[in-house]
Amino acid sequence: MTTPEEQFDRLVLAAEPRPFWLDQPGAPPAREPLRGEAAADLVVIGGGFTGLWTALLAKESDPERSVVLAEGHRVGWAASGRNGGFCDASLTHGAANGRQRFPAEFATLQRLGAENLDAIQITLDRYGIDCKFERTGSIAVATEEYQIDGLRTTAEYGGATFLDAGAVRAEVNSPTYLAGAWDKQGVAMVQPALLA
Ligand SMILES: Cc1cc2nc3c(=O)[nH]c(=O)nc-3n(C[C@H](O)[C@H](O)[C@H](O)COP(=O)(O)OP(=O)(O)OC[C@H]3O[C@@H](n4cnc5c(N)ncnc54)[C@H](O)[C@@H]3O)c2cc1C
To answer: For ligand 1, which residues put their CB under 6 angstroms from it?
Structure first.
């Protein structure tokens, strides 16, 4: 029989630290490096989501404009290819935080965030980008008593459904969950490396 320490060694220490999303069969090879000189109307530095989306918007606003995107390593290798894959409409990291920090602008921020998520989905459809975009929704949970009020705020102002302990455990049966807020509309999951 193996001890817990041996199991830890076998399962954890033996694992190779490679980002899951990037470490897929069929991942494209890195593009050829740019050699020599290049000229363009616009040069975007950095091939993460910020640079990629900037380049896309620049071409959309003026298709005649020449755009070069310069990446120092390879496209999508950094934060954009190794994140959690949560594509969240909230621009304020949740309703409780947004209402506290931006009380006057909160409603506008919520509207813009919802429009932004819709626009991302429409753009993916328009370009046929298969990045496993799926409107899964998400459940935020409280594991401490003090977190429960924040979830009530999320439910009241962030378009989520409040779940008491019984209701949240009916969805995900953890004895540590005291409450939840289920946002069924405002969150999608993506495979971020495919998106990049
Ligand atoms: C562990 C983790 C989990 C996360 N989870 C989520 C999540 O679930 N949902 C979410 O929305 N966000 C999440 N994020 C945040 C999200 O991934 C980042 O906000 C986003 O990817 C940032 O994109 P970016 O293009 O600004 O930066 P990056 O993806 O880091 O890209 C920057 C690029 O610029 C290049 N570069 C920099 N300097 C130069 C230079 N001088 N010349 C050429 N190239 C250069 C780099 O090589 C890199 O490729 C997470 C982040 C991390 C680290």
So the answer is: 45-51, 70-73, 77-80, 83-86
Which pair of tokens denotes residue 14?
């033996």
Tokens of 140: 């935020």
- Atom in ligand 1 nearest the alpha carbon of residue 46: 34
Q: Give the residue, by CA position, lying nearest to ligand 1 atom 14.
A: 83
Tokens at residue 125, please?
């459809």
Which residue in 73, 89, 69 sits closest to 81, CA to CA? 73
pTM beyond 0.90: no
pLDDT tens readout for residues 128-165: 999 999 999 999 999 999 999 999 998 998 889 999 99
Q: Quick count: other Cβ atoms within 10 Å of Cβ 2?
A: 9
The secondary structure of the chain in percent helix, strand, coil, rounded to multiples of 5, reads 40, 15, 45
Check pLDDT > 90 for residue 183. yes
Q: What is the DSSP string of 5-19?
A: HHHHIIIIITS----
